[in-house]
Amino acid sequence: MSFRVKALDRSQFEPLFSLDAAELEARGMRQLNKRQLPIIQEALKRDAARYTIAEQARLHSVSYLTARADLENLANMGLLRKTKEGVIIIFLVPRDLKERLVRLGKS
Fold first, then answer.
1. What is the pTM of this model?
2. Which class is 10-106 in CATH?
3. What confidence tens digit (pLDDT) does each residue in 65-104 have?
4. Considering only CA atoms, which of 25, 30, 81, 87 is closest in space to residue 51?
5. What is the longest distance spanned by two Cα atoms in the chain?
6. How far apart are CA 96 and CA 79, in angstroms?
7. Domain parsing of the chain, residue ranges
């Protein structure tokens, strides 16, 4: 499954910090699902955010596999960085998330 983000120029990108999920979707991020949009929105506000599969499954009332697919897809898009702490998979916000979103929007 492939996700694409429509083109965003820098002037469109800066206001993303204050947008809710519906507004992000209206700006062309329709390829992200309703669970992924708030993850990216929070990641833009909190660069130290950490996400686990179990936490996302509980938060969104979805199965472990669905939560894993959501986070894996964001990592495959380069919007999160996947790492491990012991046996737990952790998804971290890359320092250059804003730039990655801009680059992804241009591809």
1. 0.71
2. mainly alpha
3. 999 999 999 999 899 999 999 999 999 999 999 888 877 7
4. 81
5. 41
6. 9
7. 10-106
